[in-house]
Write the structure tokens for this entry.
Amino acid sequence: MNTRPPLLGVRAMAGAALAALAVGAVFWPRAEDGPEQVLAQGAGAATQTLPAATPSAKPRAITGNDAFDQAARLLELGVAGDLSVDANTRGALDVLLASLGNPPTAAELQGLEEALRRAMPGEAATQAMALVRRYAGYTSAAAADSAAQQAPTTLDELKTLLDKTIALRRKHFDAATAQALFGAEEALSRHALAVQAIEADPQLSYAEKTARIKTLREQLPPEAASQEAPETLATSEMADKINALRQQGATAAQIEQVRQRYLGTDAAQSLGEMEAERARWESRYQAFLQQKKALGATGASDMNAQVEALLRQHYSDEELLAARAYDRARHP
């Protein structure tokens, strides 16, 4: 299971949190992001293997080996045998949608419903399928909104985007479900924007900024605080310096020196390894994408089947669900 890193740049965190809200789906790093930004999104985001739910003592479904069954098993049951909905459910829903076409066909939805009914009791399966349909409607609406609006460039615009995103979620889900799926993330996003406002205030000293950020962190609700990593102005400063060095064409050794100065040798090494893993994943994806585009140019009638075969050439069985989700997020 991936764990969050010990350091987080607050400026990058705000951008990552709001980017995730804007698309309403799993957040995947952009090819141009540096590892400091990937840290802000959570360790493992660049090399995501599967957006899985946190292991627990809840009963698990017995499943087969096809894509629908693999995706369906990510949903969890409560102690009474009904569907359990929490922050982890969102990752499972993203994977479930990635197992479908875009938009899904009636046959695909029927296949998914059958997989859900194999995976869990009847009422829980009914609840799960209804949730999948609502989540699909929400992600489609969020993508349409995102395509129609300009990227926010100011704190006020980011706050407006967050408010619109929250309103859209409440339109598609009841209050309890929306809170379970998105509550912690929304609290973190508001926190990130508040931190960014403090950092941008020229009237505050370094000590005053640090104290106010500390107070904000202490006010986070428990479910959000458990997901938030410690952040400092120093790590934000490090990210800014490294971004500037990259733009100037700095060598890997120069960037490593800056990381070591701020993080220490071990943490700097871990960050370098993360960057290498992200680069390997992106290289594999670009190779797949180039072949996928060439395939699309042929106008093949069985495009979906050929893309699936192409995915299997580039990714192992264990990586397929994550690869589908990654491709869907990058090219909806």
